[in-house]
Design brief:
Largest sheet: 2 strands, antiparallel
Order of helices and strands: EHEEHEEHEEHEH
Strand order of the largest sheet: 1-8
Distance between the termini: 38 Å
Number of domains: 1
Number of strands: 8
Number of helices: 5
Structural class: alpha+beta
Radius of gyration: 20 Å
Length: 183
């Protein structure tokens, strides 16, 4: 079973701290210095309506539609999650269309690329279109940044162990309820 982040909309206050933490976790050495609104691209999106506020992010699906439609093999199962290999992504948008949760976004990013050979070799900034989605902050030992900073503890990590405990609890509740039924 893939690991994923789940949000409790009853606890979420819509503060967007999770979005800021996500951007910082993926900004490398740059942090927020020199960042403009155009470069503020969290891998989860806080949705606010009159009745609810909650972050929406990749569900790390077991039978992921985005993996199935990726023609370049850029989206793969890895580390109990669904990951995007940016070196292979061509920004075709198939994954974005296939995602039933709207959790994949196609963004334009600036990358440094080496061009030329020998003495004329140099680095230039190029724009690249790529798919971005929650990667569970797999490169960070502490786990997902959004969970660590959530003020109300509305976000939590769900893995096989957590699911097993929840399932056992549901089964016990069902057995207790069925025990009180008469036919």
């Amino acid at each position: 079973m893939n690991t994923f982040v789940i949000a409790d909309p009853k606890r979420c206050i819509g503060c967007r701290t999770c979005e800021v933490a996500c951007v910082l976790a993926h900004s490398g050495d740059e942090g927020l210095q020199g960042m403009s609104a155009a470069h503020f691209i969290p891998r989860l999106k806080l949705i606010r309506t009159a009745k609810v506020s909650t972050p929406v992010q990749c569900h790390q699906c077991e039978d992921a539609p985005c993996v199935k439609v990726c023609s370049t093999g850029a989206i793969v199962f890895s580390s109990d999650s669904v990951q995007v290999n940016q070196e292979r992504c061509v920004g075709c948008k198939s994954c974005m269309i296939a995602c039933p949760y709207g959790a994949v976004e196609i963004v334009t990013v600036e990358k440094l690329e080496r061009v030329g050979r020998g003495i004329s070799e140099h680095t230039v900034r190029v724009k690249k279109v790529e798919a971005q989605k929650c990667d569970l902050c797999i490169t960070q030992e502490e786990g997902p940044a959004c969970i660590r900073v959530c003020l109300t503890k509305a976000l939590r990590l769900v893995d096989q162990k957590v699911m097993s405990v929840a399932m056992k609890g549901r089964q016990e509740n069902a057995a207790i309820e069925a025990g009180g039924m008469t036919i």
